[in-house]
Amino acid sequence: MTVITPLLLGLAASLHCVGMCGPLMLALPLDAAGRRHVLREMLTYHAGRILTYAALGVLFGLLGKSIALAGIQQGLSIGAGVLMLAMAFMAWRFEQLVTNLPGFGRFTRSVQLRIGRLLNQNSNGAAFGVGLLNGLLPCGMVYAALAGAIATSRGIEGGLFMALFGLGTLPLMLTVSVFGRSLGFSIRQKIRLAQPILLTLAGLLLLQRGLHLDLLLFESAVPKAGYECH
């Protein structure tokens, strides 16, 4: 598993989250705190979020393993790459598709209610709990990353893929958390233009991996010509 793909996805997701999740981060009860305290609380929040991503990655990696046992491992990687390219060029809103599934809307509202209760608390574990729950909210970028986790076809690698995805979101997300009030709307719009480029790169990397697996399977099936001495 290459670390570049999940990190690229994480960076692309952070560009998306600046507009989507930024207000949630700035809503955490940190107005009276100093900047150092804000950073510590934000790291706690993101630790919870990344832990949820890693747990989901393990589950989806194991799902990919069961699918790979059917002999279509390279198809998983190619399919994940195609999904990311579709998101980059067609701007699909996967959140809407998932939330329309039976029971998912109720689950999402339940998570949102729990986040709301935690936001009204000033306990030490509030930020961590909000991060844990935020990782369960509908997000097309997370679904794209989970497709990459499935393509790893292993539980541990799937968890690592999603953990790296979460780490890739940190630079920009922490910047918004600590200095977010100085980032204007026009700046946020400009940096989000890079999202489809990063998605395209991540998709191409997964396609390359899938095609490479396919080539390896082909080479193992075709006997190599050897030298014969006469």
Task: Describe what this molecule looks like in 3D.
The chain is mainly alpha-helical and 230 residues long. The chain has one domain (4-220). Helices cover 77% and strands 0% of the residues. The chain contains 11 helices and no strands. It has helices at residues 4-20, 22-26, 35-68, 73-90, 94-99, 104-119, 126-134, 140-152, 155-179, 185-191, 195-221. The chain is globular.
Question: What is shown here, in short?
Answer:
The protein is an all-alpha fold and 230 residues long. It contains eleven helices and no strands.
Key traits:
230 residues; mainly alpha; 11 helices; globular; disordered C terminus
Spell out the blueprint of helices and strands:
Blueprint: H1 4-20, H2 22-26, H3 35-68, H4 73-90, H5 94-99, H6 104-119, H7 126-134, H8 140-152, H9 155-179, H10 185-191, H11 195-221
Instruction: Let me know the largest β-sheet.
Output: none
- The gross shape turns out to be globular
Number of helices: 11
Task: Write down the domain tally.
Answer: 1
Estimated structural class: mainly alpha
* Average pLDDT level: 78
**Strand fraction:** under 5%
